[in-house]
Amino acid sequence: MLKRKHYVALGAVTLATLLVLSLPSRATLRLKLAIGSLFLPLFGLAGTAQQLPITAADAITPRRELLRQLEQLRRQNEQDQVLALQYAAISRENDELRALAGWQRQAPWKLKLASVVMRDPANWWRMVQIDLGSRDGVRENLPVLTAEGLVGRVSSVSLTHAQVVLVGDPDCKVSALVEDPAGDIGIVNPGGSQDSSFVELAYLSGSAALKPGQNVVTSGLGGIYPKGIPIGQVAEDARPVEFGLYSEARVKLAVNLGALDQVWVLFP
Amino acid sequence: MNAFNTILILAAAFLAVFGEAALGGPRQWLGAQVDLLPALMVYAALNADLMTVSLLAVLGGLWFDALSVNPLGVSILPLFAVGYGIWLQRELLLREVSFAQLFLGAVASALAPALSVLLLLSLGCQPLLGWGSLWQWVVLTAGGAVATPIIFALLGWCRHALGYQPEVETSFRPDREIRRDRNVK
User: Fold this and answer.
1) Which of B145, A18, B181, A82 is nearest to B137 (CA)?
2) B72, B109, B121: which to substitute to probe chain A, counting the most A Cβ within 10 Å?
3) What is the CATH number of the domain that holds B140?
4) SS3 of A264, please?
5) How far apart are alpha carbons A233 and A255 in whole angstroms?
6) Domain coverage including residue B8
7) What is the pTM of this model?
């Protein structure tokens, strides 16, 4: 009887595993989202709990301090308005020059702010979940960034939330351009599992002579990331690989991926 | 053994998975997120029946994978293998001794992620592995080891405080009561 109980348990668990693993990818995604949605009330509670100290701090901030901050923000706002005017003029000039050269007009970036609500519990992936979903217009492969630079791309979307794979995850390869005179182009690969602030810039040409401190930005190739989003800076000299056929360099990411709180989703 | 114990273990697993996803502290300080499911599995294997062990493996694995990039279902078998192995030997294990709990927690927390990674690799996935993974493995093992006696104490207290207590058998039986009376005939 005892043996039979063992076999039933073993069989049931193995069958359940095989059944779930063999589901079509679309069904798996739906099931994942359905199971993940069970956690939504807890994430809501956690978000509210995180807001409580901020609200409490706001409530006890002296009026004089608030007025000082308000004045500071007003000044900042005026400066930003002047800068916006300047950028608008530059943008018009750029459009005119592009039209003269017969180039395609650059579309302005549309951004939506999102909060990071969770991280992948497994240590072997780099993924975060944000509180924007398909109802907010988010869809797969939209770039995600902060003011410092590129964060990753949207990998899957539910109604209210979306998963973002971070730069350095094996599933997030980015074509990158080094801002050097040669304009070397490579692919951003994972830089190891320990330090999430470094990635490898691989498949550079064998003659690439990268120097520490050079800026690395998205190249615009591949169709997902627009050109010019900062990725990071070259941390070490390039080293040859594959008998000098290619070279690789370590890049320190511009964004601290371990301390993401709010990110921008970039809409085309 | 009653359903309350099973519900308590599953609720703890649900909260553990949520905590692992929502709290980034250990990841920032130690470089790895501690997984509490193997530690919970040790508790379940030593204090519950095989049904609870199986349910914890299936539901815990599904909850974990649903919040992760892992293919759904990949964490079930490693958890079950760990739990089943301990459950088979539970009569021989000193479940009340903290050192035994610590040791079992360490073994379970070391085995479960290793088996998960092996399964991922055999499924053709490319998890982020390198020399740093060894450090993460050490953190997972040590974290799981420390968490196991705490989970035993916490869930033991919850079960004691909230669950039905087993009826204590007394030696008193009314049919065998010796009546002391002068007028006994």
Assistant:
1) B145
2) B72
3) 1.10.1760
4) strand
5) 11
6) 3-163
7) 0.83
